[in-house]
Amino acid sequence: MTQRDPLKDILIELFGPAPGARNRPSSQSAPEPAVGAYRTLAPVAVASAALAFYAPQLADTALTDALKQAGQLITTLHSYRWPLAALAVAWIAVDILRWRGHRQSLALEAQLRQTTRHLPIKVTIAFPPGIGALRSAKIRLPRGAIIRPKEMDEFTTAVRGAVGRTGTHTYTVRHHAHRDLILITRTPIEPDTRSPRHKALQTALSAGTIFKEPAVTVDSYDDGIEIGYKITFTPSLNSGARGFQTKVDEALAALAGYHESGRTWATEWTPSEGYLVMYLRAPLPTRVDHPLALVDENLRHLPYATGAANLSLYWDVSTKSNKPHCLIVGPTGGGKTSVIRTLLTEASRRGIPFLGVDPKMIELDGLEGYPGCAAIVYDAVRSAMLVRALHAEMMARNHYVHVKKIEPSQLPLLIAVLDEFFILSGKWQRLAKDEDEEIRARIKQLDPLGAWADLAVLARSAGIRLLLGVQRPDASLFGSSSGNARDNFGTRISLGNLSQDGALMMWGDAHVGREVDTSIPGRGVVTSLDGSPVDAQMWWTPNVDPHPNKWNQLSKQEKAIVHGLTPTESPTFEFFSTELREFVESERALARRAREYGDAPEPSVLTDFVTVDDTVVVDDFADAIPAAAVTEGMVILLDDNGDQVPVTVDAVTVVRDKDTGDVLETVLSINTGGRVKTTVQFDATEVVMLPEPDTVHTTA
User: Fold this and answer.
1) For residue 382, is pLDDT > 70?
2) Cα separation of 384 and 387, whole Å?
3) Can you tell me the mean pLDDT for 95-102?
4) Closest-CA residue to 229 (of 286, 268, 283)
């Protein structure tokens, strides 16, 4: 390979023939390049300036008259030596810039030919061209030249790779096909003042496939700190799906990370317009004691939880409410009872009476006798009677509205609580198949499930509000009624984590309510004021039972809460049906009698001993001991075709693990008479029976 001389190459370019002209046969015809040969004019100016500076020396050497005349001209030229020198320097600078533009033109022409296979007609570089990088250029293409998008992308990459090695500018290459023109422009790069979080969001979204053409901008500040981002995107079918939005919310919150303010990230979607807003909201409190002051002055709003930004969430029990009935779902110990106590104590202090059913006999018993409580029923048959009486009350109220021509909103409100509804409905179903014919007939006559189905649909207009507490949501909650019953239970509260089916049944979304922080008591998902599910912290309401066994377990703060919530005046009961009035009166009488005369058997303790005449004697049942505890000479019982036969143990071999010492196997050698011995194997967990009861112990 021959070694090239850079200086020689430059001289040939400056003063040599046009590119491709050397060694070209005269008969060969080739397209003329758009960039012609470079010709410098600076040597003329340099020679003129040098002649002006050395004019005196040249004039002294003149020998002839002609030379003397030239000497005079040279002497005159000497007086302009400095302007000529400045002109030479300027001419050199211009030639350098022209040469730089010429080199850039050659590079652009070569790149265009390599990527698009088109020879440009003319390449124009803006003057001055820029020493470090190309400033701008205009490339004139042959008429009708077609450049495919992929070829244009390759040309753009080539241009940026060759002239864009600077971090201060960026290059834009545009193809104007209708004008057969390519324009290359350079624009300065604005300093990237984005925060690391802003950059991370934009980089992740641009690199992923979640959105098409995503753009992240800062939406809001707080004391110079970014607290909100607006993410725009091209709308798609996925962007309107709730499941897709939930996954994106989780990904964005994880990407944004922990905020220095301690608040958590939330999102608000507007998919129809192609954007969402990430914003910071105050973290939910980990505990909220039931406030003593009326949080909501509206007496038909029963607050029970605190949501984001300290927003109080409530159950609207007014007649105009589109969420008249309330459903609470939560596992045992999840805080369901406390939420029920919160709602009922709020109802009492707002003048709304209530009654309820507690099949477990331990959840609502503390509310019995509380101001506003008509009755708490525990028996399954009595519960069926209550549901039927509520049905009669509903029909009587509707009849009253019809006859008196009044608005349903003028009816007094009544809340009916059915805790552990599945347990209750299961008891009703078993009673319908009971062996006692009278009980079966009674349940058939009451038809509590049918009455309940009517209440779920029709109780709204009668001023009766239903409060259900269950451990899991199910379609049977709404009986055999239509979807109207489900819609009436618009106020919903879920505590703990739901299953996928439970989330669909409860919220209509398989993702909602499945990632609740169960380490925080009272944390759950509730219906917001606009009907959407939101995270919330339930209020803590202590047990209001005044019995000493319950009351003495409360702290001073909890006792103060109970005292502060208790209304000075008990709500008034207004019954429109004799069935419900007579039932409540009879239930109160039964409850009063049970408190006065009722008794419960004391618990007994299971012991191994019985006492007879001051002698502690063990029971008469044979003992069972581990096989490894058997010793030589001990009498044990062995099975012989179904009979337990006592035998004597001659030898015991216990096999143990050599590392842990745990028993692996026990082999007993039994003498069954004569010289024949039998071995019986027992594993590590087997036991053997002893024929004798424990030894008798006498008291001192």
Assistant:
1) yes
2) 5
3) 80
4) 268
Q: Position 347: which residue type?
A: A
User: Does the bond joining 128 to the residue before it have cis omega, within 30 degrees of 0?
Assistant: yes
Kindly give, in sequence order, each residue whose CB lies less than 8 Å from that of residue 687, ignoring residues fewer than 6 positions away.
Answer: 624, 625, 626, 627
Per-residue CA distances from 417 to 357, 465, 466, 487 (Å): 6, 9, 6, 18
Note the residue count of the chain: 700
Three-state secondary structure string covering 626-655: EHHHCCCCCEEEEEECCEEEEEEEEEEEEE
Q: What percent of the chain stands above pLDDT 90?
A: 30
Residue that the structure tokens 């303790």 belong to: 605
For the chain, how big is the Rg over CA atoms in Å?
48
Helix (H) or strand (E) holding 596: helix 578-597
Consecutive H or E run containing 45 = helix 42-53
Measured distance CA(468)–CA(339) in Å, rounded? 11
Does this model's pTM top 0.70? My answer is: no
pLDDT at 25 over 70: no
pLDDT of residue 29: 52
Query: Which amino acid makes up residue 198?
Result: H
Look at 25-39, 226-240, 642-656 and tell me which has the smallest mean pLDDT. Answer: 25-39
DSSP secondary structure letters along 240-298: G-HHHHHHHHHHHHHHH---TTS-EEEEEEEGGGTEEEEEEEPPPPS-EE--SS-S---
DSSP state of 576: S
Q: Which of the 8 DSSP states describes residue 122?
A: E
Cα gap 240→209, rounded to integer Å: 16
Specify the amino acid at residue 171: Y
The answer to whether 524 and 335 are in contact (CB under 8 A) is yes
Q: What is the pLDDT of residue 696?
A: 39
Say how many C-beta atoms besides its own lie within 10 A of residue 618's C-beta: 15
Joined tokens for residue 284: 């939910």
- What whole-number distance in Å separates Cα of residue 306 and Cα of residue 329? 18
List, for residues 590-624, the tens digit of each pLDDT value. Answer: 888 877 776 666 665 554 444 545 554 444 444 67
The whole-angstrom distance between residue 134's C-alpha and the CA centroid of its chain comes to 49
Give the whole-angstrom CA distance, residue 172 versus residue 156.
Answer: 8
Over residues 351-375, the mean pLDDT reads 91
CB 155 within 8 A of CB 173: yes
Half-sphere exposure in the Cβ direction for 121 (13 Å, CA): 10
Q: φ, ψ for residue 666 (rounded to 5)?
A: -125, 130
